[in-house]
């Protein structure tokens, strides 16, 4: 389940006036929502579809486990780092304009990735894909929020948004396996191009244009946060290759930390900051984003290591790997629909702690990873508590991120929660890869099973830590 991105620009005191979308007729709102929701489906699909293809991709281009992690991280990191600047550009230049530009950039990146002849070209193309997604995703939801004012209409639109996010994850798992086995790994990148072209064409016709708000982009802040995150992620990923004490690890980690600290300081001084510090002190914003950083690493790490275990240890074909992940994806989708009712009965804070604990228990069960594992006992059954737990957590943290936030700042709150999810995923995957990829000349299935199991146990520990921390969420900030 991917919580939907939002245009991350505050419109409260100290922020610019919001870009105004000129409303179309009521009959056009449904088709416009369909176009924008399809774009969200595509973003989620692109995140999950590549995972089942990783073993075939690694064989085709000669990538190690660390190299494969960067195939995922290059997209996730660029996507996460661009959510805030992308939403800001939407306010400055018009959300529909930036949405269309982002979709075009996404198409270009997908085409180059599908045709890549070597690792360097593939990783560069994945960065371009992430840049496109980072532009189109926040502006897509910003357009939805502008088209549907608060009330029953917006609630239904958000339900559709959440549903396509879950469906995109499930579809990516299944289609990744089918495409890899039937046509080769290149088609996991090429298959989304027709969808994106359809979105581009239909958006020009069905999505009404908006009036830019004007203002300036916080360029120093955007550069600092992007470079800081890239350096920190690079340092973490290098630990598997060079060891934690190496200069190639400590140097980037230190440099990344300094840049992120400078970004935080600059946001208190910038005339038009990407993140207004006052918003972080509202309601549940800080708590939700801290927890989502942890959960993002768990989520991305799970979908990275699970297909590797299925194919490299259990010997599954890409199609079988995709099919055996469906219980996990469907459990996440179903939980996202049922969570609001459970939260009303239990209270959001209790529901959040229980959901995180459920996910942690499922991950610990899954981490057994025997080299002769059963599809039912060792995959399907532990996938159910993981899927239910994570599906509920994404809904609850998205709601918590808006608790106590006035409507004028809802866009910024939504952009932040998705930024921390993507960035947490990039940093978490780098950390888990360092745990699971010790230097080896040759690795037997049994040794790989041990390594992947170790990564999943660390993911379970992170989820358990998040469950513990969720108990300290302020009571008054727990309800949306």
Automatic annotation (TrEMBL):
GO terms for cellular component: plasma membrane. The chain crosses the membrane at residues 32-54, 66-86, 98-121, 127-148, 160-179, 185-207, 219-237, 243-266, 287-309, 350-367, 379-402, 423-440, 452-473. It comes from the Bacteria. It is found in: Cell membrane. Keywords: Cell membrane, Membrane, Transmembrane, Transmembrane helix, Transport. CDD domains: MFS_MMR_MDR_like. InterPro entries: MFS, MFS_dom, MFS_trans_sf. Residues 32-478 form the Major facilitator superfamily (MFS) profile domain. GO terms for molecular function: transmembrane transporter activity. Residues 1-25 are annotated as: Disordered. It is a multi-pass membrane protein. Pfam families: MFS_1. This is MFS transporter.
């Amino acid at each position: 389940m991917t919580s939907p991105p939002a245009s991350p620009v505050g419109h409260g005191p100290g922020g610019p006036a919001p870009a105004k979308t000129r409303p179309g007729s009521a009959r056009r709102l449904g088709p416009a929502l369909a176009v924008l929701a399809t774009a969200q489906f595509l973003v989620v699909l692109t995140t999950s579809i590549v995972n089942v293809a990783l073993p075939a991709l690694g064989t085709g281009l000669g990538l190690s486990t660390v190299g494969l992690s960067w195939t995922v991280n290059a997209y996730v990191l660029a996507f996460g780092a661009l959510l805030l600047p992308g939403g800001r550009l939407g306010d400055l230049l018009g959300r529909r304009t930036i949405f269309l530009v982002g979709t075009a950039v996404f198409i270009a990146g997908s085409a180059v990735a599908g045709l890549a002849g070597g690792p360097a070209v593939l990783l560069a193309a994945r960065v371009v894909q992430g840049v496109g997604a980072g532009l189109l995703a926040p502006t897509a939801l910003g357009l939805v929020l502008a088209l549907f004012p608060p009330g029953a209409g917006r609630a239904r639109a958000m339900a559709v948004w959440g549903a396509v996010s879950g469906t995109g994850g499930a579809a990516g798992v299944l289609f990744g396996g089918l495409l890899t086995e039937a046509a080769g790994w290149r088609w996991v990148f090429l298959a989304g191009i027709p969808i994106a072209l359809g979105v581009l064409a239909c958006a020009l016709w069905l999505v009404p244009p908006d009036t830019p708000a004007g203002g300036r982009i916080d360029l120093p802040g955007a550069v600092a946060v992007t470079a800081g995150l890239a350096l920190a992620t690079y340092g973490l990923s290098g630990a598997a290759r060079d060891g934690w004490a190496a200069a190639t690890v400590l140097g980037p980690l230190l440099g990344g930390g300094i840049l992120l600290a400078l970004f935080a300081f600059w946001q208190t001084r910038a005339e038009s900051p990407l993140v207004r510090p006052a918003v972080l002190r509202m309601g549940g914003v800080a708590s939700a984003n801290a927890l989502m950083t942890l959960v993002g690493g768990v989520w991305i790490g799970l979908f990275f290591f699970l297909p590797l275990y299925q194919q490299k240890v259990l010997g599954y074909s890409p199609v079988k790997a995709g099919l055996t992940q469906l219980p996990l994806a469907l459990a996440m989708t179903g939980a996202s629909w049922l969570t609001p009712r459970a939260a009303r009965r239990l209270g959001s804070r209790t529901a959040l702690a229980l959901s995180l604990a459920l996910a942690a228990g499922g991950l610990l069960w899954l981490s057994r990873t025997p080299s002769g594992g059963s599809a039912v006992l060792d995959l399907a059954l532990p996938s159910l508590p993981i899927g239910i737990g994570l599906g509920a957590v994404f809904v609850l943290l998205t709601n918590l991120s808006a608790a106590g936030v006035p409507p004028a700042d809802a866009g910024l709150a939504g952009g932040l929660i998705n930024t921390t999810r993507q960035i947490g995923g990039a940093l978490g995957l780098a950390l888990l890869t360092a745990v699971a990829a010790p230097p080896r000349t040759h690795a037997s299935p049994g040794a790989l099973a041990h390594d992947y199991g170790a990564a999943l146990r660390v993911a379970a520990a992170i989820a358990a830590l998040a469950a513990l921390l969720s108990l300290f969420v302020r009571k008054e900030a727990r309800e949306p």
